[in-house]
């Protein structure tokens, strides 16, 4: 409602969306603070691995942003966005692994009496990469692995095309709601099962490894490299945040929210609902792919387990806890839950003694997460982001018990107040 | 020297004069042993065969005893005279001797004058093989059975006559059948007369036995060979076809020294390296040799100088191949027998393919019943009530763990399973009711959020199970009477557990139909799901009905868990293996219709087995393609195979 009132005025963007200014400012401050405190260019208070964790968290925030756009704004509960994230990782990982192995192979062949032929180099790389799955030839899927620009294009194109084809099929036949969720989950499962095979051409369950080493930059210390990736993550998150804000604040965003609230009515008003959904599904898949491409070089390894359906479910959990339908909510949720998760599962949280039984958080964190997720769904559908509403005294007007939305599935006033 | 020997001999004669005299050195068996004395004493597996054959074929009544005792290391030989005796160790380093002919006791003797024959395991095996023919006519059926088993394991040409000898005299019907079959099989393998072998092969028509296939397949082995002219009776093989690619044909000529070997890229490289002269090879700069063309050029230069053999080009290969003719010959048997065997094998393969299809259908059926079992609870909670319960898989897991815990306390497997089924129902029923009361009740109008909340429950339940039972798989042992499988022929078989699961799936179907269509509860459930307000005004309590229905669906998932636990291992993650497939089954079949679920389960099961049949080594791929197929299927029938029509579909 606030959007509707303000969109008619011509005030500057910063005035219309104060949250954007606050968010970008906070992100910039955070980046500068980490840069000063880290080893790479600063005083070295923060360890290198923690910088990587922070950089990875920013990437997770980025994919959560995509999830919020597709679920919180458009109402498509996709359980497949972490698969697009993983595909992005695989795409960049192929080049990283190829190029790095190439340097190693060329070095080892340099001492041979004859200069190596291109075929010999390629065979050497293939043996190095595929030795673990008992193959020594490049599968066709690696045809572009030698070229960084082509693989970077793949980061965008493969998730985008996959989402486009799947979305076109699904939206065209009006698969909606939970059916679509289950279908996306099945797609994710199929993809991860496919990658688990040794003859998928992507090293089966070994996945791609050694991605933290940038080819040709062996002299640059890891602390510097991780700072580069941290900056890249921050810039990507900031840019995507601005882009998403722009997307959801105009008329386009209003149509998206209308689709979420009552798809049929929007269709009757003459909008091509399928085209809107298809665009947003593909667009967010591309964001997820890019996020994955920045995430996995920091993680160092990508394997099919990362694409398992449970990862996408966790993504939904982050967004729900952070607060659907507001961009900063998704970012807060992803950052908070994934950092807490690292803290608890890393064994740093103190164990609780309950008489004879010791609650070890490594074991019980998932239980806590699951139950708190249930509680958030039941008692606080707005998630953490809802707290900001309380702070800003932004509360829905009293509607005297009337439903907020037109159909039986829409929020009731009582729930909306929580 | 000779004198010294005489003295020693005399001493020996003095020490053991009597036993030697009491032995019948002229008995035929002793003479036979003496004849092969050297070989027997030498005890080498390579040379022993004639001695064993001679003993076995001698027809002497003592032969069996001799072979038996020899194998048991009870035969000794006199170091001087070379006479063989049976001996048992007696106290004070003495031996109690028996005559090899008739086993009459001879008396005691000093052990050091005799040498024990210690046949190694290889020789013992040969002796055992020879003994088989004696065992075949043994009065005890157990011995005869053991002999047949021995022949089956390691058949030999000599067994054929032994089998034929006892074929008619055998009195036990079951043994008689086996002897007859073995005799036919051995005839195929070892008979000298080709027509007898062919007759035996043809006699087996319609048989699918593994033993028969094992006998026949070596007979049809062919070998491809090359010569300048075609020998008689050989089949010409075209070069460049699948059975003989050009490269293989040329390699064959190379192996027979009929053609010059290819220069492989490794050999080429090695030759170049060998001929490096400073910074050049044959006048070419080494640094420029980084492509295959440059290397070939340099090599050609070397070949022109005559330092290395020239590269064989493709036209050379073809030219060489034209000079020879390639043919295949049967090496396992004479052509007539081999052709008969080939025809028989072809016949078997056709029948085998039919049987395999039937077996595959059975497999698909049992997989379908497993999916149906996993999905039937969902058909109630999702299909009838419209509640998305992502923790359904965890209810299956809870049921399986209930079975495991019951088995910890009740060791009797039959009793424990009978106890586990109602207990699993009770546990998951309560869990389902609790979940409905605490979570789902508040979300009836918001299906997406039901999905999320039940995900939360699913994650928590899975981790709790992991914390309690650990990550390793726990066994749920089936009762003895469910072990083993029902074998129809050598190909078609199905384990009893799978049959039990199938029966259980049918029972559940009947139970579901009965509860839904014939009971008050079913009526009220249908009323509440169609129109809760109207049902409430008719005096039905919708809250209570929803709670009971959800509990019922969850309880059935628990029982399914016990059944699935018997068939697969019980782990905390077993639920996730079934949840997606279960939803697929319900969605594909058509929500809200149990027959649809049945059809969906059959389709998913048949599809998965069908895809596995194309690529048997890869179940992962089968699952992937199955899911993709289902995604496509839903595009064309979004409401499933059996779609609800009318008002019920809109609800």
Structure description:
The complex is a heterodimer of chains A (418) and B (651). Chain A is mainly α and 418 residues long. Chain A contains 17 helices and four strands. In chain A, strands 1-2 form a two-stranded antiparallel sheet. Chain A has a two-stranded antiparallel ribbon with strand order 3-4. In chain A, helix 4 (48-73) crosses helix 13 (309-322), helix 5 packs antiparallel against helix 7 (148-172) and helix 7 runs antiparallel to helix 12 (273-299). The longest helix of chain A is centred in the N-terminal third of the chain and has 30 residues, at 81-110. The radius of gyration of chain A is 23 Å and the shape is globular. Chain B is α+β, with helices and mostly antiparallel strands. Helices cover 63% and strands 8% of the residues of chain B. Chain B contains 28 helices and twelve strands. Chain B has helices at residues 2-15, 18-22, 28-35, 37-42, 49-57, 63-71, 121-136, 141-153, 157-167, 173-190, 194-203, 210-216, 246-255, 265-274, 292-305, 314-322, 335-384, 392-409, 413-438, 447-469, 496-518, 520-530, 532-537, 542-567, 574-589, 594-614, 619-636, 647-650; strands at residues 75-78, 84-90, 94-99, 105-110, 114-116, 222-227, 235-236, 280-281, 284-285, 325-330, 485-487, 493-495. In chain B, strand 1 (75-78) and strand 2 (84-90) form a beta hairpin. In chain B, helix 18 runs antiparallel to helix 19 (413-438). The longest helix of chain B has 50 residues, at 335-384. The N and C termini of chain B lie far apart (116 Å). At the A-B interface, helix 7, helix 8, helix 13 and helix 15 of A face helix 14, helix 20, helix 25 and helix 27 of B.
| Assembly context of the chains | heterodimer
| Helix fraction bin of chain B | 55-70%
Q: Low-confidence stretches of chain B at least 5 residues in length (pLDDT < 50)?
A: 13-21
**Biggest chain pair interface:** A-B, 54 and 55 residues
Record the strand order, biggest sheet of chain A: 1-2
- Order of SSEs of chain A, N→C? HHHHHHHHEHHHHEHHEEHHH
Structural class, judged by helices and strands of chain B? alpha+beta
Number of beta-strand segments of chain B = 12
Please give the radius of gyration of chain B in angstroms: 39 Å
Distinct helical segment count of chain B = 28
């Amino acid at each position: 409602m606030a959007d509707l009132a303000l969109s008619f005025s011509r005030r500057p963007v910063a005035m219309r969306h104060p949250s954007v200014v606050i968010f970008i400012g906070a992100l910039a401050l955070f980046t500068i603070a980490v840069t000063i405190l880290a080893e790479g260019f600063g005083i070295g208070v923060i360890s290198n691995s923690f910088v990587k964790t922070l950089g990875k968290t920013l990437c997770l925030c980025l994919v959560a942003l995509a999830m919020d756009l597709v679920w919180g704004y458009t109402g498509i509960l996709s359980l497949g966005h972490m698969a697009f994230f993983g595909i992005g990782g695989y795409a960049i990982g192929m080049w990283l692994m190829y190029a790095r192995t190439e340097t190693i192979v060329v070095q080892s062949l340099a001492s041979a009496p004859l200069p190596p032929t291109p075929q010999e180099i390629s065979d050497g790389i293939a043996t190095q990469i595929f030795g673990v799955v008992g193959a020594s030839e490049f599968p066709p899927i690696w045809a572009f692995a030698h070229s960084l620009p082509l693989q970077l294009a793949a980061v965008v194109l493969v998730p985008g095309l996959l989402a486009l084809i799947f979305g076109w099929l699904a939206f065209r036949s009006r698969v909606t709601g939970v059916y679509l969720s289950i279908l996306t989950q099945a797609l994710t499962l199929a993809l991860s099962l496919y990658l688990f095979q040794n003859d998928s051409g992507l090293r089966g369950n070994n996945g791609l490894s050694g991605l933290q080493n940038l080819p040709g930059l062996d002299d640059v210390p890891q602390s510097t490299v991780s700072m580069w990736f941290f900056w890249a993550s921050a810039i990507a998150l900031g840019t995507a945040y601005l882009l998403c804000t722009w997307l959801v604040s105009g008329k386009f965003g209003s149509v998206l929210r209308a689709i979420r609230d009552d798809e049929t009515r929007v269709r009757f008003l003459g909008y091509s609902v399928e085209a809107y959904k298809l665009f947003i599904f593909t667009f967010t898949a591309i964001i997820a792919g890019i996020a994955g491409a920045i995430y996995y070089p920091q993680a160092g390894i990508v394997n099919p387990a990362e694409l398992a359906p449970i990862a996408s479910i966790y993504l939904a959990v982050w967004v729900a806890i952070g607060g659907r339908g507001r961009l900063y909510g998704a970012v807060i949720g992803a950052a908070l839950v994934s950092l807490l998760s690292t803290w608890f599962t890393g064994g740093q949280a103190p164990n609780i003694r309950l008489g004879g039984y010791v609650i070890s958080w490594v074991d019980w964190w998932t239980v806590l997460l699951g139950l708190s997720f249930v509680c958030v769904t039941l008692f606080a559908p707005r998630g953490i982001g809802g707290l900001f509403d309380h702070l800003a005294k932004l509360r829905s007007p009293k509607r005297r018990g009337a439903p907020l939305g037109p159909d039986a599935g829409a929020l009731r006033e009582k729930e909306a107040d929580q | 020297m000779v004198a010294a020997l005489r003295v020693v001999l005399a001493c020996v004669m003095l020490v053991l004069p009597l036993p030697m005299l009491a032995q019948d050195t002229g008995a035929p068996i002793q003479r036979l042993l003496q004849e092969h004395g050297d070989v027997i004493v030498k005890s080498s597996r390579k040379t022993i065969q004639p001695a064993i054959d001679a003993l076995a074929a001698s027809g002497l009544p003592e032969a069996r005893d001799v072979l038996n005792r020899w194998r048991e290391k009870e035969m000794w030989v006199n170091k001087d005279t070379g006479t063989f005796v049976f001996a048992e160790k007696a106290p004070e380093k003495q031996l109690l001797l028996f005559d090899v002919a008739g086993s009459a006791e001879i008396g005691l003797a000093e052990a050091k004058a005799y040498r024990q024959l210690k046949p190694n395991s290889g020789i013992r095996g040969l002796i055992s093989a020879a003994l088989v023919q004696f065992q075949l006519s043994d009065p005890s059926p157990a011995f005869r059975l053991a002999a047949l088993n021995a022949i089956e394991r390691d058949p030999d040409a000599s067994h054929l006559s032994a089998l034929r000898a006892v074929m008619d005299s055998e009195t036990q019907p079951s043994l008689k059948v086996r002897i007859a079959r073995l005799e036919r099989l051995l005839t195929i393998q070892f008979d000298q007369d080709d027509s007898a072998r062919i007759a035996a092969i043809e006699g087996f028509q319609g048989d699918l036995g593994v033993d028969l296939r094992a006998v026949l397949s070596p007979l049809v082995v062919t070998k491809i060979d090359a010569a300048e002219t075609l020998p008689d009776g050989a089949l010409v093989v075209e070069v460049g076809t699948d059975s003989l690619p050009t490269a293989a044909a040329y390699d064959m000529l190379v192996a027979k020294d009929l053609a010059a070997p290819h220069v492989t890229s490794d050999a080429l490289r090695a030759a170049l390296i060998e001929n490096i002269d400073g910074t050049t090879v044959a006048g070419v700069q080494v640094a420029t040799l980084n492509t295959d063309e440059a290397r070939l050029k340099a090599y050609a230069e070397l070949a022109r100088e005559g330092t290395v053999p020239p590269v064989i080009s493709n036209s050379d290969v073809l030219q060489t191949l034209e000079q020879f003719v390639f043919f295949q010959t049967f090496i396992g048997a004479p052509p007539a027998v081999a052709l008969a065997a080939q025809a028989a094998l072809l016949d078997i393969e056709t029948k085998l393919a039919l049987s395999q299809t039937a077996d595959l259908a059975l497999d698909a059926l049992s997989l379908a019943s497993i999916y149906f079992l996993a999905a039937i609870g969902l058909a109630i909670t999702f299909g009838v009530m419209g509640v998305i319960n992502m923790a359904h898989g965890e209810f299956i897991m809870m049921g399986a763990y209930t079975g495991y815990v019951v088995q910890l306390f009740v060791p009797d497997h039959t009793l424990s399973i009978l106890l586990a089924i109602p207990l699993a129902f009770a546990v998951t029923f309560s869990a389902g009711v609790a979940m409905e009361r605490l979570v789902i009740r508040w979300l009836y109008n918001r299906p997406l959020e039901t999905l999320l909340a039940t995900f939360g429950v699913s994650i928590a339940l899975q981790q709790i199970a992991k914390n309690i039972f650990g990550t390793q798989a726990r066994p749920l042992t089936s009762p003895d009477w469910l072990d083993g499988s029902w074998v129809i022929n050598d190909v078609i078989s199905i384990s009893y557990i799978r049959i039990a699961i199938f029966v259980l799936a049918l029972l559940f179907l009947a139970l579901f139909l009965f509860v839904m269509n014939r009971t008050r509860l079913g009526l009220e459930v249908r009323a509440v799901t169609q129109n809760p307000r109207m049902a409430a005004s008719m005096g039905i309590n919708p809250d209570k009905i929803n709670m009971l229905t959800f509990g019922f669906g969850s309880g059935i998932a628990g029982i399914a868990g016990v059944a699935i636990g018997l068939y697969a291992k019980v782990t905390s993650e077993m639920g996730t293996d079934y949840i997606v497939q279960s939803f697929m089954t319900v969605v594909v079949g058509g929500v809200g219709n149990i027959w649809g679920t049945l059809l969906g389960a059959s389709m998913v099961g048949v599809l998965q087995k069908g895809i596995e049949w194309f690529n048997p080594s890869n179940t992962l791929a089968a699952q992937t393609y199955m899911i993709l197929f289902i995604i496509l299927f839903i595009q064309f029938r979004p409401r499933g195979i059996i779609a609800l029509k009318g008002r019920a579909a809109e609800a």
